[in-house]
Amino acid sequence: MEVFSGRPRSPERHPPDGRARRRQASLLDLRSAAGQVFLLQVVIVVLLVVASVTATVLQTARDALERGRRDSVVAAQSFANAPGTAEALQSADPTAVLQPKAETARKRTGVDFVIAMDTKGTRYTYPYPQEIGKKFVGTIEPALKGRTVIEQAGGPPLPAGRGTDVQAVVPVTDAHGKVVGLVSAGITVKNVASLWIPQLPIILGSGAAALALAVAGTTLVSRRLRRQTHGLAPAELAQLYEHHDAVLHSVREGVLITAADGRLLLANDEAIRLLDLPADARGRPVGELGLPEPMAELLSSPETVTDELHLAGDRLLAVNKRPTYPDSERGGSVVTLRDTTELAAVSGRAAFARERLELLYQAGVAIGTTLDVERTAQELADVAAPQFADLVTVDLLDAVLRGWEPTAEGWRQLRRAAIGGEQRMMPVYPLGEVITFSERTPQMRTLQERRGMLVADLRQAHGWRGQDPERARKALECGLKSLVTVPLRARNVPLGVVNFYRTVDSPAFESEDLAFAEELAARAAVAIDNARRFTREHAMAVTLQRSLLPRGQPDQDALEVAWRYLPAEAGVGGDWFDIIPLPGARVALVMGDVVGRGLHAAATMGRLRTAVHNFATLDLPVDEVLGNLDDLVVRMDNEDDAGDVAKGHEGEGVTGATCLYAVYDPVSGTCTMARAGHPEPVVVDPDGTVTCPGVPASAPLGLGGYPFEITELSLLEGSQLVLYTDGLVENGSHDIDVGMEGLRRALRGSGGRTPEETCQAVIDALKPSSSRDDIALLTARTRRFPSSHVAEWDVLSDPALVPSVRARCRETLREWGLEETAFATELILSELVTNAIRYGLPPVRVRLLYGRCLICEVSDGSGTSPRLRRAATTDEGGRGLFLVAQFAQRWGTRYTTRGKVIWAEQLLGDGASAAMGHAPVDFLLDQFDDPGA
After folding, report:
1. Cα–chain-centroid distance for residue 746?
2. Each residue's pLDDT tens digit, 883-899
3. pTM
């Protein structure tokens, strides 16, 4: 289909031949757009041709060089690995053997040279024999180390002539892998012009074709543009202007055109309406149109304006201004006006709502980052001020701060928990102060009525002013203006109130502000209640755990002990420690850690600690104590899995624990220990040297069936044994190796410190800023029993020697100044030795230990344990252990690898008298009376 312009075509419109030639020639006129486009296309085609030729030359040279490198490496490695090459290099005349082979290999492989040389670089072969025996030109050091060297280098003349030499150097090794020589092969890369010149006609032909297409395209575009710009008839142009005028006056934007001298040339109907222009405004100066001064100055100035807002009567107009002829001297400007009055109102409300939503989002992110009640209250105050209020105070019930369940009885007294805003110098109640609100105050009313209260003018709030008249007067003088107080409620339980204040510099609160404050307080109340409940549960767990841990040091002579226990911030764990006195003045040290946290972990820790006490009372070996604990943990797991009682409760899952158990003997100075998955202890010698004793790590408790290895250490007197849980040396910021190095650094030089000072130094050095795990630390400094307070001797298995045992006991007690205990001690020792001789096996040995108490020990080779019983009146014996039990504070039996030890302890001083008061002589003699006599 053909499209005609407004005028009919006629033969007269076709130009003569000369005019057509002038139009064809105009293509080369650089002042025309067609000529400029044609010139640009020519330049682009020429650049593409040059780039193609350059890329071809470079790629050809690169391919030739790469091929030379590859062929050199293949030729050198083939010759180096050929049979007999290594033997020839080690022969008396390598050249005689290798020169023919090298020339044959050079000709077959197509390389320019194959050189065999010794490890010093002396040539054995070369295409020209006069170069044999000279030094090789190139790098050989990497090849002597077994690597292949590829490089570009120069050297003596070659048959191939001049060019770039690409050579590879490879090692020649013997049967043992030793480098006995080197082989180098190379190629001379010649001029590559012969490779790219044949491609030049193709490139030039493509460029010529592209240039021809460019000329044809430019011609077609030029003819079409001329046809579109010069083919319109006058009627069509008039119609075009009519359409332009109709559109100009029907759009909802005002359009003004001003001349360079400030006269108004054109104004459409919308501009006349928006500016209230007179009917004869066209052609008059802008300053005479009665416009507001800012608008008149804007229309008269030549400056460019983009979306500026100006008032014109009661309308808010968005103004844009651009020059009409920026490249000529005619000047003038075109101005567009858009009425944004309604849009501004809607946008203002939308912006206000967006700001409130952003503030609620910030509150959701910033409030409740921790489980601390006071910190959460402060986060609420910081979020609301100054975005919503100038001053924010948060008052909480005292029970909430303590973690208790709040009650209505505590409403009258609230504690100031947080203050936010720049007006902190306002005369308000300070942080931590208990405030007793009266019934008429907005705070008390909001608690009672369970809704927010809005006080637009605090000067009229008689209840608020009556709470503290002097403080209220000063606050009003400082500019306090309005108040919104909202209750903090969660789960329908009141927690406190939050007070939002504004000063005279801010607008007073409105009803929309009250609704927003209630929404903000509702979100914050949930976070505060979560923190309160966590505080309660954490306090309960800490109380439970502390009640299960030692509260004081037991009486013992072996160790000077100090400890630290720091519960985790996020929840109580199952760390525990213990100091258990054992018979024979020995002491057991226990350090353990239950997997998990919370009440379940604390309860499990209590069960394990009780079990350790029971096993220690039986005086079991170290590995058997851990083995029994392992069986107990396995049984606890089986109990949890057997029923549905614990389902859904905290701590559900497999119970696991680690434990370190050590027994120290102050008489021998030895410490026997084993650990089940627990961190290794640290020993600090008296000179301050810090060492890890190397206790083998066994499997944690709860896996079942694994043995526990024992280590026995000999500790010097004054050494410190440091036990700890993993919370001390491991946290999220670093691993356990870094923590162990920090522990050793903190303990270094602690030989002269007391255990208390050592504990404090370690905690100060290693305590993290926020502990995510419990920390238990136990430091024990060793003591030794002086040899003067230890008496021991062997007893032959003869009952007639018992009197001599009593005599030696009496003599020893006299040396120690314990004559008042001689009777009871002789009686105890006599009974124990008599039983050992009658019912035990040799050897029988007696040991007396004088320390905090007097300890009598009788050992024999039998594994049979005596038992206490009440003898019948007709029995001739059976009352010996009864006498021992009455005269001793406590007694018992412990087993050794060579038999057993029966021991008895007696209190010294006032304690001995008190103990004797419980065993009157008449009562004892009654055990031997015959009622039939």
Report:
1. 24
2. 777 788 888 888 888 88
3. 0.52
